[in-house]
Structures are given as structure tokens and as C-alpha cells.
Amino acid sequence: MLGTYNDEMFGIAMVIYLIASVFYLIYAVSKNNKIGTAATLIALSGFLVNTAAIGVRWVESYKAGFGYVPLSNMFESMVFFAWSIMLIYLVFEYIYGYKSIGTFVSMMGFLAIAAVSLNPAITSDLQPLVPALQSNWLTSHVVTCFIGYAAFAISFAVSILYLFKRGDKTDGFLPPAKVLDELSYKAVAVGFPLLTLGILTGAAWANYAWGTYWSWDPKETWSLITWFVYAAYLHARFTAGWRGKPLAWLSVLGFGAVIFTYWGVNFLLSGLHSYG
Amino acid sequence: VSAAKNQKSLVDKVYDFLCSVKLSLIVLIGLAVTSIIGTVLQQGKEAQHYYSIYGDTWGSVIEVLNLGDMYHSWWFLVLLSLLMVNIAFCSFKRFPSAWRQMKDADPIYTGRSVALHERMSLSVKGASVEDVAAKAEEFLSQKFGTPVGKADVEGSTYIMFSKGAWARYGVYVTHCSLFLFALGAIVGLLWGFKGYMPIIEGRTEQFMYARDEMPIQMQEDLGAPTADMETLRTAAKSLATAVAEEAADQGLHLDSMDLRVVDQNGMETVKRFELPEPSNTAAQTIPTVIRQLNAMGIGAGKSVSKLVLTADKFRRKIDFQILCENFDLEYYPDSQRPKDYKSDLVVFENGKEVERMTIEVNSPLIRDGIFFYQSSYGKVGVRSVKVTVAGPDRQYLQQNATLFNNGSLKLANGDELYIREMWKDQQGRLPDGIIFGIKTNGAPTSISARAFEPYVGRDWWPLGKYQVRLDSVDWWHYTGLQVAKDPGVPIVWAGCFLITIGLFVSFFTSHRRVWAKITPTEKTVKLDIVGNASRNRFSFERCFEDLCEDAQETFKN
């Protein structure tokens, strides 16, 4: 029914991310600047198609007569997650100029869309919002949470690369370990305030919808667990002066908590927060 | 003397531990790991539930550690408190040095412990120290404001700049906000309440079912076991009085209670009962309790050693009344997907209407700081239906005709169609519906038929020699309101505001100190510029690269 045309756009974005990932890989191996520029342009075009697809879906929801910001179910949140990952990555690439990380990140963007587009159990149909989701808090809550998650995904990617990297040579396949360590922290520094805002907007919304800003619902609790892990990460780095491997592992652990907050709670645990 | 030293060092050790980041990390990871339990283990069940699922060993672990309500258990609260104590001590210990760095205006950076993250130097030919100093001050001022200190020592000129010193407040503001969250939670716990208030359409309600209240338990040891009913009644009276007074003290009304009679052998008999109406005075409570005691009776040859009265279900009375005029349930067109739940509420104070509001999900009624949220609804009965009835020869006897709950519709031969009752499957396996009946000459017959709501306007249901089609149903609903009063919420919002500012300042701003030192050498003048940034060294590095270019530009001969 609705949204088949829209599905195709997400599919195109997905394929472009895969191609971008390959180009970034070739760049990382060859260090050919032309290929590097091409990789960036391909990733950017994928991001723009992704943006347009979300925009089209938004318009289509209004055409269907029950317009809403398309951030309300698993399909919509995953394509937005892919969008957020690419957004944060492209901003990081612009600021810091390291491209080889793009291999891993574009692959995550590809996987995020593939996981929902190719999974028959997850519907991409436009569905009008149930009463609980009809709130102005929805957009600010989902946007802050997911851009935060995306920043943590970048930190995770960089940390994994750090853990694979041996030595501190600049001429290798990847940026120097010190740079990876710094980038991983930078991403957490972006993600942590956003996750905090996500939790706060969620609490504000819960207070208006359920009459309590905190009820130790599994989703709330897991977002708090994630918050604790990244708070530990930041204090380990700033106050205890940790660097390198232990921090990289903490970032991996933190992203594990993010993933569980996002999927584990929905698929394995029950609670109030069963939309996405 | 040595004992005193050891003692002091122990205090120091404890103090150091409470200040340490090691403790922060242990507590943060500890909170993260233990919090998982409550998301996996179902919360808020009775102890027996856990014993029956997890067996005796794990059941007792769950009971002792209160894992069934772990977020309110003593050990979890200890962990949270430890985090707060750690933050307080840590901030207290670190603030003075942060303050010193904020106020630092000492232009002489050499020979003291300042980490110099960036440095550059260049030689200027054919200029005096004064010239170079003036020019350096000018171009550095553009980036870092007016100098905070200057000094001339042994022929060298030192100039210091300090920008964004307030960035160092960020972490303290963030930590402070956590105390506001804790304070808000405590205020809410002490002076707030939660409840549930179902109101039937067309009715007025002033009581809610209280939630999360501690049970009130009183007991009377009779000393020597006795079978004398008069003594027992006196004991029961004093128990009822004590429980009612305690409830009144907490602003609660009693709803349901357990009366427990323990005999001389320690055997217990329990009777659960409800008060005819919510009350919290001895005068209203005593008669019911005595009636229950009388009804329980004391068996022959038995005597009673103890009476226990436990109230565990309460109601709370609010200072105004709420009328639910109407409840509405709306679906999206051609779909079973609910679009909206709405209740038209009217508030009365002393019998006078003072407010009127239609509430829906995400849009509560707020009165006297009490929030009423649309949270559920249910069917109480049926108001009317529209039906089409066909006779034995398939001719329409009634078409899309309205049948009220107490009314009837004429069919043929003195037969009438009427509504017996609404149908509701207690197990929830079958959909809701209506049970129709037939009256002949005004007298009900045994003929009946059940018509299910999802098949309105479609299916025909045989009713004796007739066929009935249900065309639509107008249900009589109740609306379920969640009620909450939490005076801690504004404090929590203040915390939200502070943490947002605090985190932003912590992560995206930094305190930058820059020093310039101008030293004459034999042929040239040497300019050194060094810098320290409290955060974001990467962007400070870039800032310094720009600075180098500026300097080269400025002193290009």
C-alpha cells in the first residue's frame, strides 16, 4: 500500500552506504586522495537520499490523512538511526579530516537500514499514532536519543578500530592510535549530553502522559544504565586519566548497553515503552 | 601518640576513599550492573511469587535483598547515597584548586606547575622589547580579551590572558543538578501521592485508590490466652481505633483490612474484609471490625493470645469532586487502531461548578497541584443499541431501530425484544457483546442470543424464530484516571535545567590561559607564546596554529 515508493528511496540510500563503505576501504588501503573525495561524496549523497526519504515519508503521512513526524516505530527509528550515524560521522570527518573510519561507519549505516528493510517481521507501513504517542515531546525525545546513540556508535566504531590497531604508526591503514583514542572520546562527549537530554525529555513526557517522571520501566532503567556506563567512561578519562585500551573497552561496553536499550528491551523485556 | 596517628590516618584514608574517582567508577559500574536485575526480574510481586518460580534458595535471596522492589531496597539506596557522598566530597576537595586556576592572573608561567599544552616562539629582528610586547598584546587581545596580568622581570616582559574561566564551573553545576534530582525525589516521596480514580460516566467521585502506601499494622497481645469475647472486643476496638487514627494521620481512608486471630497454639485465622465506605474515624471503623470478630467466632476449647489488624488498601479523599459527564473512544477510520480517549470532566467545590475540561492522553487536568491523567477505560454496561430484526419469513420487523437498556421493541404476536445484559468474557478470550432476550406478553422467556460487538452491521444471530442483527452499540463506560501529586517535580525540572547547562559548559567550552614572554637576546627579541586549555585540546591546538600565523604576519619584516 502506502510507502512502497518511499521504501525504494531507503533502499537506494542503503545501497549507496554500502558503496561508500567500499570506497572508504579502498581509500584506507590506497591512500589515494581522489578516491577519498569520491568516498565522501558518495557517503554525502547517501545521506541526502536518506534525508529526502524521511522527508517524503513525512509528507506521505500527511497525504494519508494522519500526518506525523516519522519517528514512531522500529522501521522509522532505524532509518533515522542510520541518518544520525552518517550525520555525526560526516561532521566529524569535516572537522577532524580522518576518512578511513568511514569504512566501518558507512557499513553501520547500511546495516541499520538493511536490518529493517530486509526483515519481513518489521513493517514499513505508515501507521497512524496511538494516543500515547500523540505528543509534542515525541520529536525532541527521539531526535536527542538517536543522535546520542549515533555518536556512541561512532565512538564504538573508533574504539573497535583502536583495539585492532597495533602500534602508533601514522603511515598504516588507520589514523594513529592516539587520534583514535581522542576521536572516541569526542564522540562520547557529543553523545553523553544528548543521551542526558533524551532521558530528560522522556521524563518530561512521561510526567505528562503517565503522571510520573520516573517509574523504573525497563526502557528507562536501561537508558540510565547506559548513562552510568558513559559517566564512568568520562570520569575514567578526565579524572582518573585512563587512556587507550581500557577506555576503548568501556566504550564498547557502553554501546552494548545502547543496543540493549534500543532493541533488547523491546524484544526481550516487557514494559510501557513498546513502540521503538 | 602512635595510636592517635594511626587513627588519624584511618580517617584520612576513609576521606581519601570517599573523594576518590576510584569510588566513583566502582559505584557507577555497580549501579549499572545491579540495575539490570530489576529489568529482568519482574518487580512488585509478593514474596511467595518469587519462591514459587525460583525455588527456596533463590526465593530467599530475592526476599532478603528485596530484589522484588530492588530500586527501593536498602542496598540500592546505599549505592545511590554513596554516589552522592562521593560527588559531594570530590567536589569539595577539588573546587579550591579549580578556583585558583579560574582566578589565576600570574603572568610568570615559568617555574610553577602549569601544564603547557601549546607553545610557539619566534625571533623578531630590529624591534624593541616594548614594541614587540605592544604588538603581541594587541593581536592576542583580539582572541583572548584584555590581559589579566603583566610583569617585567629581569628585562623580560610577561603578559597573561585568561578566557572562559567559567567553563570550570560546568562540572560543579552538573554535579549540583544531581543533588536537585535527589532532593526532588525525596520531596515527592514525602509529600506527594499517587492513585487511581475510576469514574463511571454521569457519576461524581471524590475518592481515589491510593498507590504505593505502606500497610498499617497494629497488634494486641492479650497476655494470658482468653476466650472471653468481651475482652476480645475491647482489644479489637482499641486496634480499630489505632489503625483509623494512623490512617487519618497520613491523610488516608481505610478500604480493606485483614483481621488475624492467633490462638494459644500459635495457629492463625485470617479474615479479609472491606469497609462499607472509606473511612478513617474510630466511630466508623469499630462496628465493622467487631462484626468481623463476631463472625469469626472462637472455636470450642480455643483461646486467643493475639489479635492483629492490618490495613493494606487505602483510599484518599481530595478537596473537590469530579464528575465524568462523558467518555469518548475514537478510532481511525476503517481501523481498529485507537485514535483518542477523551473524558469530559467537571470539577465541583462545595457543590459549585468551578472548572470544566476535556482530558485526553498527554493532556491532563491539573487542580490544586494534583494531576488527573486519562489512563484507561472500561465498559460498565450498555446504554442503547441499534438493531435490525427479521421474522420467521425473513421479513424485517424492525430496521436499524434504537433499543434502550430498559426498553423493548415490539416484534410480532405480543413478542418483544429486550436487552438482558451486557456480555463480557472474564478471561478476555471472547469479544464484548450483548445478550438479547424475548418477552412474550410482558413476561421474559428463556430464549436468548449473544451478539458480539466486532460483527456489528454484518452477522445475524438466531433468537428463537427471529434473527437479530446488531447495528451499533452505545456503551456505558467508566473512565480510569491516574492521579498524581508530586511537589518535587519543580525541583527536578530545575535539576534538568542545570544539568543541561552544566553538560554543555563542561563539554563544549574550555578555560584557556595564554602567556606571552618577550625576552631580549643579543641581536633580536624573542617572543614565546604558551597556552593551557582545561578541555578540548584539539580545537585549542587549531586555535594555536592560527595564532602562529597571526604572529608571523604581525612580525613579518
Q: What is the tally of helical segments of chain B?
A: 10
Q: What structural category do the secondary elements of chain B indicate?
A: alpha+beta
Computed CA radius of gyration of chain B, to the nearest angstrom: 39 Å
Mean pLDDT of chain B: 90
Strand tally of chain B, please? 22
Order of secondary-structure elements of chain A = HHHHHHHH
Q: What ranges of chain A have pLDDT less than 50 throughout 5 or more consecutive residues?
A: none
What is the beta-strand fraction of chain A? under 5%
Give the largest chain-chain interface (CB within 8 Å).
A-B, 46 and 47 residues
Q: What's the helix count of chain A?
A: 8
Task: Evaluate the radius of gyration of chain A.
Answer: 19 Å
Largest sheet of chain A: none
Helix percent band of chain A: over 70%
Shape of chain B: elongated
Largest sheet of chain B: 13 strands, antiparallel
Model description:
With 276 residues, chain A is mostly helical. Chain A contains eight helices and no strands. Chain B has ten helices and 22 strands. In chain B, α2 (21-40) packs antiparallel against α4 and α4 runs antiparallel to α6 (170-191). The longest helix of chain B is centred in the N-terminal third of the chain and has 30 residues, at 74-103. The radius of gyration of chain B is 39 Å and the shape is elongated.
Condensed summary:
The complex is a heterodimer of chains A (276) and B (557). Chain A is mainly alpha-helical.
Which terms summarize this structure?
heterodimer, A: 276 residues, mainly alpha, 74% helix, globular, B: 557 residues, alpha+beta, 13-stranded antiparallel β-sheet, five-stranded antiparallel β-sheet, 10 helices, elongated
